[in-house]
Write a structure and sequence with these properties.
The protein is about 55% helix and about 0% strand. By secondary structure, the protein is mainly α. It has a domain at about 1-30 and about 50-80. Helix 1 runs antiparallel to helix 3 (about 45-75). The longest helix has about 30 residues, at about 45-75.
Length: about 120
């Protein structure tokens, strides 16, 4: 397995985790914390910490996803296969002989058309 394939698998996993973490949150501040009676002074089971954990994990996963994407770009550029174009290679272009057109004898198979009236 190449480096790029490993990075691609990690990117897919991190993107899936990021989607799950974002979907668990509620944009109005409810989300998972409201399920456990969040809101007022009755905070059961550290709901405030759950919200902080979801917020921090969102930022960490997004940062890790960005780093993976940048690292995968490096993995693409330093691939083991050499797939340079021969069209851009001057040595390869000079080795290929160009076809020489051959002169063919002219044949007079056309009939003259009189265009004067």
């Amino acid at each position: 397995m190449g480096n790029f394939t490993i990075f691609l698998a990690l990117i897919v996993i991190v993107a899936f985790l990021l989607i799950v973490v974002i979907m668990v949150q509620n944009p109005k501040g409810g989300g998972l914390s409201s399920t456990f009676g969040g809101g007022g002074s009755q905070q059961l089971g550290g709901v405030k910490k759950t919200t902080d954990f979801l917020d921090k994990s969102t930022w960490y996963l997004a940062t890790f996803l960005l780093v993976l994407i940048l690292a995968s770009n490096v993995a693409i550029n330093t691939g083991g296969d050499n797939i340079d174009s021969k069209a851009l290679d001057t040595e390869a272009a000079s080795e290929v002989p160009l076809p020489v057109p051959t002169a063919q004898p002219a044949t007079d198979n056309t009939t003259a058309v009189d265009t004067t009236n």
